[in-house]
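Quick one, C-alpha cells below. Sequence please?
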C-alpha cells in the first residue's frame, strides 16, 4: 500500500451531495489503481449543518478539517436558509470562514473548453474553434468580501449599506506571484484585472502587479479594466492565458469563463494557502466554482465533472500525486471524446447521461487507463 491521505469531505447542500458521491466513486478507483489510501471524513457543512447541528460550520467539522491534509467541498446555500441573518447563512457562516481560517488566499479556477465541447459553448463556433484554456487566479481572502466595516444601518427613514474594499500591498503581491508562477508553466501571459480608472484599490493593484512583473521578464503582462475584460472574454477567449483578479472581480469573471467553456458544471477550483519551502504538498480546499444549483437539485442531472476535477486538483496540490491527478483529467477528456454528456452540455448527436452515469463512466475510464 502506498501513501495514506486524510481528506475532509464536506458535501453541503443542493447538488453538493449528488456530485460529491461521483467524486468519491472516482477516488475509490484511483485508490486501487495507484495503491493509495484515502481516509475520508464526511462532515456537515452549510445548510445541512444548520439543520443537523444548529450552525453552518460546527466545531466538529472545523476540527476535522484541521486534522486533514485537504478539504473536498461540495457547495452550500439555498432558498431554505436565505431568510436567516446574513452571518448565519451557509455562505457567510461556513464557506467564507473556512477560506479565511485556513488562509486560502489563492483560488485557481482553470476554465478549459475542450475541442469536443465547443458546440456547448454559447460563443460563436468561429470564436471557440479548437477550444481554449484560461486559468483564473482569484484572490480569495481580501477585498469587499472581508473588509471592515461592513453593515446596514438606518438613518431617518432610510437604510444604507457599507462594504469596505481593502487590499494590502502584501496581499496583492502574494497573489500576483501565484499568477506569474502559473503563467511560467503555461503560455507565459498574465492579464491583470482592475478598475484603476475609478477605484483606489485598482490603482494600488496595478502598481504592485507591475512591480511583481519586473521579477518575471519572461512573462508578458497586460492590464484590463474589469468591464473591458468581461467583454474581451466573450470576444476573444483565446487571447487569455492567466487572468489575475481580486476577489469579487474573480468571482464574477470565473462564472463567465465557466459558461464560455460550456457549463458552470465543468469548472473546478483549488483554494490554497502559502507554500512551504521544499514541500510538494500544501493544505487546500477543493470545490466546484458553481453553487448548490437549487433549480436542478434532487433530479440526478447535475454535471459532476467540476467536483471530479476538483478532486484531481486535490491530489495534485495537497497530496503531490501528479500521476493520479492526470489520470482523472485524462478520464474526463476520454468520456467527453466518447460523446457522453450531462444535460447541461448535451448537444444533438451526443449521448445524454445522468449524474451517476457520468461519474461511473469517468471511474471506469480511470480503471482501464
Ligand atoms: N461554493 C459554493 O458553495 C457556492 C458557489 C456559488 C453559489 N453558491 C450558492 O448556491 C446557491 C445557488 O446559487 P446560484 O443559483 O446563484 O448559482 P449556482 O452556481 O448554484 O447555479 C447557477 C446555474 O448554473 C447551473 N449549474 C451550476 N452547477 C451545475 C452543475 N454542476 N451541473 C449543471 N448545472 C449547474 C444551475 O443549475 C443554475 O442554473 C446560493 O445559495 C449561492 O450562494 C455556493
Ligand atoms: C457562495 C459564494 C460566497 C462564493 C463566492 O462568492 O466566493 C461562490 O460564488 C464562489 O464562486 O465560490
Ligand atoms: Mg461564484
Amino acid at each position: 500500500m502506498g501513501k495514506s491521505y486524510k481528506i475532509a469531505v464536506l458535501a453541503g447542500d443542493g447538488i453538493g451531495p449528488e456530485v460529491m458521491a461521483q467524486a468519491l466513486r472516482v477516488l475509490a478507483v484511483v485508490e486501487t489503481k495507484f495503491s493509495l489510501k484515502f481516509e475520508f471524513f464526511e462532515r456537515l457543512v452549510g445548510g445541512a449543518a444548520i439543520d443537523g447541528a444548529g450552525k453552518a460550520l460546527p466545531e466538529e467539522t472545523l476540527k476535522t478539517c484541521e486534522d486533514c491534509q485537504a478539504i473536498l467541498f461540495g457547495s452550500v446555500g439555498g432558498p431554505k436558509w436565505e431568510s436567516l441573518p446574513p452571518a448565519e447563512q451557509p455562505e457567510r457562516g461556513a464557506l467564507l470562514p473556512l477560506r479565511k481560517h485556513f488562509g486560502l488566499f489563492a483560488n485557481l479556477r482553470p476554465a478549459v473548453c475542450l475541442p469536443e465541447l465547443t458546440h456547448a459553448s454559447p460563443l460563436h463556433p468561429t470564436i471557440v474553434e479548437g477550444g481554449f484554456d484560461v486559468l483564473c487566479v482569484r484572490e480569495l481572502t481580501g477585498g469587499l468580501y472581508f473588509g471592515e466595516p461592513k453593515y446596514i444601518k438606518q438613518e431617518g427613514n432610510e437604510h444604507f449599506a457599507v462594504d469596505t474594499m481593502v487590499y494590502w500591498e502584501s496581499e496583492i503581491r502574494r497573489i500576483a506571484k501565484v499568477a506569474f508562477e502559473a503563467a511560467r508553466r503555461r503560455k507565459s501571459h498574465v492579464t491583470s484585472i482592475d478598475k484603476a480608472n475609478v477605484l483606489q484599490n485598482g490603482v494600488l493593484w496595478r502598481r504592485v502587479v507591475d512591480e511583481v512583473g519586473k521579477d518575471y521578464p519572461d512573462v508578458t503582462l497586460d492590464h484590463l479594466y474589469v468591464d473591458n475584460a468581461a467583454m474581451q472574454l466573450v470576444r476573444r477567449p483565446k487571447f487569455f492565458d492567466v487572468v489575475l483578479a481580486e476577489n469579487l472581480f474573480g468571482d464574477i469573471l470565473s462564472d463567465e469563463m465557466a459558461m464560455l467553456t460550456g457549463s458552470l458544471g465543468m469548472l473546478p477550483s483549488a483554494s490554497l494557502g502559502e507554500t512551504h519551502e521544499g514541500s510538494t504538498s500544501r493544505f487546500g480546499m477543493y470545490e466546484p466554482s458553481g453553487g448548490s444549483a437549487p433549480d436542478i437539485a434532487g433530479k440526478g442531472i447535475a454535471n459532476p465533472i467540476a467536483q471530479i476535477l476538483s478532486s484531481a486538483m486535490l491530489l495534485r496540490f495537497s497530496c503531490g500525486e501528479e500521476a493520479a491527478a492526470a489520470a482523472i483529467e485524462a478520464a474526463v477528456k476520454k468520456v467527453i471524446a466518447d460523446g457522453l454528456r450531462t444535460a447541461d452540455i448535451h448537444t444533438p448527436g451526443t449521448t445524454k447521461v445522468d449524474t451517476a452515469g457520468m461519474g461511473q463512466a469517468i471511474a471506469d475510464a480511470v480503471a482501464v487507463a
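The longest helix spans residues 16-33. The chain has a mean pLDDT of 97.
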